[in-house]
Each structure stands twice: as structure tokens, then as C-alpha cells.
Amino acid sequence: MVASACGASSDAAAEVAGVEYPVDDLTAYLETTDPDSEARALRAEAAAWLTNWVFFTALEQEMAERGIAVTNAHEAQAVADITQADPSFVPGAAGSRIVIRQRAATLAAFEWTEREVPAAVAGEPPRHLCSRHILVATQPEADQVMARLEAGEDFVLLALDLSLDPGSGSLGGDLGCVPEGSFVAPFEDAAYGAGPGKVVVAESQFGFHVIEVISSGPATAQNHPQLDAESLARMAEDAELAALSVAQGEAQAQRQQLLIDIQQQIFERYGPDVKIDDRYGRWDPDEFRVVVDQAG
Fold first, then answer.
1. Exposed / middle / buried, residue 214 (Cβ in 10 Å: 0-12, 13-18, 19+)
2. Are 44 and 35 in contact (CB under 8 A)?
3. Helix H or strand E encompassing 177
4. How confident is the model at residue 296 (pLDDT cuts 50, 70, 90)?
5. Per-residue b/e over 9-37, b at no fewer than 16 CB within 10 Å?
6. Which of 287, 269, 277, 261 is nearest to 50 (CA)?
7. CA distance 192 to 271
8. Going by C-beta distance under 8 Å and a sequence separation of 6 or more, which residues neighbour residue 86?
9. H or E stretch including 3?
10. pLDDT of res. 120
């Protein structure tokens, strides 16, 4: 069916990528929304409906070109998803076929992103840092703490007396054993750079940290000899889960960006060629939507 120059063909409410949406189908859908609605309200409803139809039809075409066609399996999953979200949804009702197809096109897009960005694989597990610290306000105070430690005073007693960190201070400065990334960067840079058994000063937005590094590195007995086997096993498991979580987050971010890119490509590629029957409004390719003019 050939579309007219000013809009879709006489039997089509909209057309994109050579696919037409019949006027009869749109009319049947609108009759179910609000039979007593004023004409302008119906036009607004039609404009919103057709805008969605254009986008998801273009998405389906784009996915097919990328090798992911919408299948019966996608549609079956779409019905399950929609019904779960809205138990009142009736698959055979007017407009339901379009809604199912749109959800199926979305599922195809998700499948494509998963093909492009495979399942995440955890990288190297993060290091762990076992440490304690004394938090003071100024560099001279930190220097005094270092001098007292060098003179043989006990770290725990100094932390109890001087630390501005109420949490660790009440525990003698103990910060436990935590995976890399748990503390602010200046703290960790100084601690990992100093190595086990060293005391070092680091400045952060919280003040000056006098840090005693008890042990550091991957969760092994060699790196953390003060810990028992059960503690090491727990640390190793936590590190593995943390590494997997980071990998999954990165993969998900990449997939999300692919979806954003696809949307922009659809706007640019399909927007200029969309045709809309004039009775339902006009197509704005810049906004990628059907517009109902106030005077219409």
C-alpha cells in the first residue's frame, strides 16, 4: 500500500519502515478507552498510542536487522510479564496485540544486548586490608601521635584516648579486615603503599589518619597470617562475590548504554520517514512523537 505525501495512506493511521497500522485497529482500540470522551481527548489518546506504536515498530525492525527477530517465545514471555504486572490484562482485548508485540520487541532488544555484552565473569578478587587507625584533626597532632608510637606507647591506648572516630576509637582504632574500596582513596593509597607492619599518615576529608597496617593483600594465609582458616575462607568468599558484583554492574551499564544508543539511532534513522494520518495529528521528527496542535 502506497502512503500519501502528507500522511499515511487512507487505510493506515500510521506507517514506519514500510509497516502500517490500520485505522480500523486504532478505532477499535480508542472505542475501548472512553466511548464518551470528547474528540480532542480521543485525538490525544490516539497521538500517544501511535507514538508508542511507531517507536516499538521501528525497534522491532532494527532488532531484526541485527539478527534478533521477535519470536513466539518473546510473545509468550511478554504475555507472562504483562499479566504479572497487571492481572486485569486481557490478551484478546482491543489493542492487546500491540501491547504484547511491543513488550516482545523490548525482550528482543534485551536479548540483543546480552549477545553483545556476554554474562559477567568476575575478575581478580579485591585485596583485603586489616588495619587500625587514630583520627586527628591536624598534621601536627598526627606527628605527635607518630612520635609517641615511636617512643613505645601502645597504639590501642592512644586510639582510645585521642581518636576523633568514635566507632573505631572505642575499639582501640580497630577497623577489621575489609575489601579494597571500603575506605576513601587517600587512606587506602597510603595503607596499601606502606605494607604490613608499617604505620603511616594519610590526609582525607575527615582529617589525618595515623594508620597501622596489620596485613594486606588477597585473602590467603601468607598475606594474613594472624587470621584463622575460617576467617580467611569467609574473606575469600566475600572478595569473590564483590568481584562478581563489580563485573555484573559493569556489564549491566554497558547493556544500558547500548539501549540508549539504539533509541537514539531509531530517532535519527526512522524519525524523518514516519507518516501519520492527518486526522490524528502531525508527526514531529525532532521530538519523535505525534503532536496534536491546539487549533486542531
1. buried
2. no
3. strand 174-179
4. very low
5. beebbbbbbeebbebebbeebbeeeeeee
6. 277
7. 54
8. none
9. none
10. 77
Each residue of 121-132: pLDDT tens digit? Answer: 766 778 899 999
- Cell representation of residue 265: 539511532
Please report, for residues 32, 33, 42, 257, 280, the alpha-carbon distance to residue 46 in angstroms, rounded to integers and kept in the order given. 12, 10, 6, 30, 6
Tens of pLDDT along 132-177?
Answer: 999 999 999 999 999 999 999 999 999 999 999 999 999 999 999 9
Contact 126, 180 (CB under 8 A): yes
Which residues, including other chains, have CB under 8 Å from residue 283's CB and lie 6 or more apart?
Answer: 54, 274, 275, 276, 289, 290, 291
Give me the mean pLDDT over the 91-96 stretch: 92
Beta-bridge partner residues of 21 = 14
User: Angle at which helices 39-65 and 96-116 pack, to 10 degrees?
Assistant: 30
- Supply 120's cell numbers: 559477567
* Segment 18-38, tens digit of pLDDT: 999 999 999 989 887 765 665
